[in-house]
Amino acid sequence: MKQSSYQFTYAAARAVAAAVLVATIAFAPSPVLAAKASGGDRAEARIKDMHTKLKITAAQEDQWAKITQEMRDNAKSMDALTQKRLANANTMTAVEDLKSYAEIADAHANGIKKFIPLFETLYASMSDAQKKEADALFRRGPGGKSKKK
């Protein structure tokens, strides 16, 4: 069965949207703050929330600083791409719109790829209680809601 170009475009857009959603879960703060805050503000709220919940120790602060810098850099990048997209939303062609989504999805993916090894190093230094909290924090996602199975 041959797919029409509409079906391909729709499927591609859904795949990109799914990638953006997954990446957003990793870096987004609580829903209340996310509604009105900039990317930098959301990142700062998420950093503060994670620091508190993970009970980062003095010995872990150097590793934590690297993680927070990556989170801030990712938020800055995402904010710039989102603002660019919003500024051009009314004049973009369908192809430009898809490319804009792709830029955002790529930025999310690259941010996560940089975040993972930094977090792995911190995670390896965590106590069992901290690891348990980290597992629960990432399992629940932003706002403390359980992810559906």
Sheet of most strands: none
Query: In percent terms, what proportion of residues is strand?
Result: under 5%
Sheet/helix structural class: mainly alpha
Query: Helicity, in percent?
Result: over 70%
* Radius of gyration over C-alpha positions, nearest whole angstrom: 17 Å
Give the overall silhouette. elongated
The number of E-state strands comes to 0
Note the gap between the termini. Answer: 31 Å
Question: How many structurally independent domains?
Answer: 1
Helix/strand order: HHHHHH
Please tell me the overall pLDDT: 80
Parts with pLDDT < 50 across at least 5 consecutive residues? 25-36
Q: How many helix segments?
A: 6
Tell me what the structure shows.
There is one protein chain. With 149 residues, this protein is mainly α. Helices cover 79% and strands 0% of the residues. The chain has 6 helices and no strands. It is elongated and about 50 Å long.
Write the layout of secondary structure elements.
Layout: H1 5-27, H2 31-36, H3 39-54, H4 61-88, H5 94-125, H6 128-140
Helix pairs in contact: 1-5, 3-4, 4-5
Summarize the structure.
79% of the residues lie in helices and 0% in strands. The protein has 149 residues and is mainly alpha-helical. The protein has one domain.
Features:
149 residues; 6 helices; 79% helix; mainly alpha
